[in-house]
Every structure is written in C-alpha cells, then in structure tokens.
Batch of 3 targets.
Target 1
Amino acid sequence: MKKQKSSRGQTLLEILLAFGVSILVLSAIIVVVNASLSNAQYTKNQSLANSYAAEAMSVVKQIRDSNWSNFISYVTGTTYCLDQNKATLRESDPPPLVCGQNVEIFSREVRFEHASDSCLADPACMGPSCLKGSKVAVKVLWSDSKCPSGNIFCHQEELITCLSNIYQKQSP
C-alpha cells in the first residue's frame, strides 16, 4: 500500500515537471516569434528609409536640372528638410536642427557641400583651378523600441552623391 501512495506522488511530480517544461518551451517560442517580428519590422523600415532617401535624391537632381542657380543657393552645411509629397526643400527648425517626423515615422534631411574636394570632376586634377561638384547627403532617420531613451532617431539610411552642371545642357 505504501508503494501506491509513492507512485501517486511520483505521478503528480511528473505532471508538474511536464507542465514546467511545457511553459519553458512555450516561452522560448514566444521570445523567438517576437524577435522575428521585430527584425521583420526593422527590415521593412530600413527598406522604406532607403526608398525615401532615393526619392529625396531624385528631387535634389530635379532642382539641379531645373535651375542651377537655385541649386547652388542652398547653403553648405545647413540642414534642409524634404517633407512628404513635396518637391522643395525647407530649412530645418533650430535647435537642434532636425526636421522631425516629416515622412510618416521618418525624418528626411538633405545637406549640401558645394565645391567639395571629394567631388572633383577630374580626380587627376590638382590645385584651385580644378572644377569641383557639390556633395549632397540625404539622411533618413527613424526610431523604434530598440532605441535607447533620449535618442530620438537611432537608425538611419544615408545616400551621398556628387552633382554638378558639367554635362548639363545650357539654355540659350
């Protein structure tokens, strides 16, 4: 009879152990699924940010192509904002010279560096007479739950290119 009581206690212990293992396995599955969803969202945002940066670069090229004087009037080192569905740049709001969320959850900004040494028309050319283009950097920034507190936009995609009017058809 003592054996029967012992086996009932052992069965209860086995049930509790199986229940504990089941909870651990279920918790691990939930953690993995949550991490996968978070990574998928990050990848989606990264892809969108890259698209928004390419779109902004296209707008900057249109500004260059339509009016070179207007293009070079953008001040070197100043941050400009390109809001959603806009074809014009606006100066960022001071301080801290950021554009805020101007394209859904993203912040899109453009910076110019005219007569940039990194944008020589002829890389072999040396000296002040060398023709230099304008370096244009488009940054798209965003935030998510992985960002530390106090860091508004901890993720970014950046496109940098050199633009000039060397091959641009001059109007009569």
Target 2
Amino acid sequence: MKIVPLDPRRARTRKLATLSRKVMRNQVASTVQAGSSIRDFFDSLPEVLAASDLRELARRIARAHRAGKPFLMLSGAHPIKVGLGPLICDLIRDGIVSAIAANGAAIIHDFELAFAGRTSEEVGEGLADGSFGMARETGEFLNRAAKLAATEGKGLGEVVGREIQENGLRFRDTSIFATAYRQNTPATVHVTIGADIIHMHPAADGSAIGQASMNDFHRLASVIGGLSNGVVLNLGSAVVMPEVFLKALNLARNLGSKVRNFTAADMDFIRHYRPRMNVLERPTGNGGRAIALTGHHEIMFPLLAAAVREELAER
C-alpha cells in the first residue's frame, strides 16, 4: 500500500489565549530558603497533581476533626515496621485519629517494638533452618491476648493494647495499640488465619483468634456506620484491609446506616487493584471524594501528618 504523507502546511492553528490549559503560573512551586518552617515548605509546593492531593487530604482530615467527624485509619504492618508508630500514637493522643483498624501482622511489630525495641527479621535466614517467626515471647504474648479477648467477648486490638499497657512493656508509650487503649480509641485487628508468624506457635488457638477477630469486625462495622462526612485512610494494606473495609461498610449500610459523602484515601508505595476498587472507587460511588497518594510510607505519612498539624494550626 502506498502511503501519502500528510502535509502540515494546511494545519489550522489558534491563539494560545483561546485554548484551555491545566497548569497556571500561580500553581507552580516557589523556592524555600534554609531554616524555613514546615508551613513554608508546604506553601512552596506546586498546586498540581499529588502535591495538591496531599494538601487536599490534610485539609479534609482537619475539617473532619474540627467538625467532630471520624478519621479512620486502616493499616498494614509495613507502616509500623518502618517506624511510623510514634506519629500514629501522637495523632491518636490528640484525637485526630478516631479509630484504627489493622491486619494481624500489625500487632506483631507493635508488640515487638514495645517489648524489645526492635522488630523485622531476615526471613530468608530464618526460613533456612525453620527459625523464622519463632520468637517465643511474641507468640506467647499475642496468642494469650487472643484467648483473653475471646473469653472476655472483646476485640483482639483492645486486649493487645491493654496487655501491653498493664504488663508495663518498656516502650509501651510508642505502642499504637497501648496508646489507643489508654485513649479509649477503637483499635481493631483483622486476622488472616495462617498468614502471621504467631499462628505457627504451640500457643496458637484458631478458635480464639477467629473469635477475637470477629469481635473486632463487628466493632469496625459500628465505627464505619458513623463515617459520613469523615475520612478513611488505607495506609499500606494491599489486600486484607481493603477487603475488610468493603464488607464492614456493606454490613453497616445493610443494617441501616446511611454512610455517605466521606473522603477515602489510599497511601502505598505502588498502586494496587483492591485499594483502588474497595476503598476508593466503590465506596464513594454514590458520593464522596477519593484520593490516591503513591510513595514510600516513611516519607509520605510524615508529610501528611505534618500537613494536618499545619491545617489545624490555622484558625
């Protein structure tokens, strides 16, 4: 087939002033001088894409806090492992985070940091000889907490926090679950049986773990029932918490809660299908705002926490 090249000499052009543009000069970044404040830093960011979304999320969290609306955090274990516990504790203490829900691995890192001040093992090394995940104190403490929660009819998150606090663990002040317990902030744990290292231990009782986690599922559904005009943030959970959130939201709506017009946000170092669909898109399909921020937790979450503080400082 013979190709006849198009001749651009007859192409029509238009004056720039008559054409729309998405980025304006007043949206671009400004410079920051040495010794500037964190407020100066945020003000210097371009009002474009993720920088704009970060500030928008901070504004929405601050607005929800001022209005007495909930800010629910969903968390994987990785944010705790990379050292964000003290920041989350601080937000809980100040009533900014009004509830936190996490997967089963989160309590492992939270306990080990509170008990020993260290966590996160080299999986490959331990896997070679079967020692991976077999820390005695971790298994005994958390499996005992599951049994207590099941027996008492309480949630796993509450009892883990209580036991960390009442047993006087050395670094309990930076334990998320102990802080939530002290502040009477709902903290729930949602376990996938067989996925966490403590399930390999002699003390593991599947019935107790399941009952304690089911108790927490019902507590989370109650929290979500009041989420209208609030904010939910999924921080670093690719599968478990997005799935749990979707079902808990549906249960709350099924039982009569009109959960509408909330902000749903996802922060992770890559974008995943389930957070996008089950936290951002489906839940806000009938009203609300969805925000996705991509980047390393240990950088992005401190930025968000600082931005929220700055928003709340403005009156």
Target 3
Amino acid sequence: MQAAVERKFEVIGEALNQLAKLYTAMAARIPDVPQIVAFRNQLIHGYATVNPDTVWNIAQNALPGLLAAVQQLLDQQGN
C-alpha cells in the first residue's frame, strides 16, 4: 500500500512540476507546489531516506487541501 501511495505522490509531483514550467500563473494558485515537487524528487531519487510516517502524514493532512485547491482551479477553468 505504501508503494502505491508513494507512486501517486510521484505522479502528482511530476504533474505539478510540468504545470509550473508551462503555466506558471496557474501553478502559483495551488499552494505548496515547490514543496510537493521537492517531495516527489525525494521519493524518486532518495527512496531510502523517505520516512513512512511522513508519507502517511502528507496523505492524511496535506492531500485534502491540495485536492480542494485543484478542484477549485478546475471549476474556475470550466472543466
């Protein structure tokens, strides 16, 4: 289960990384993009240093806010 959650964070981080490169103003409306991308990089490049409690904490506490921010952005874009 942990590997699946980490993989989803990798995908989310890469998507936000690309968004930040291509649509800077839009990415700026999503909180914590640099931190999310940095966490993605840690997962990809430093797996041994990732604390499972950190992954769980982010999933429980940060992910709902990220989802809400992205949903609001999509709603404003008419999607």
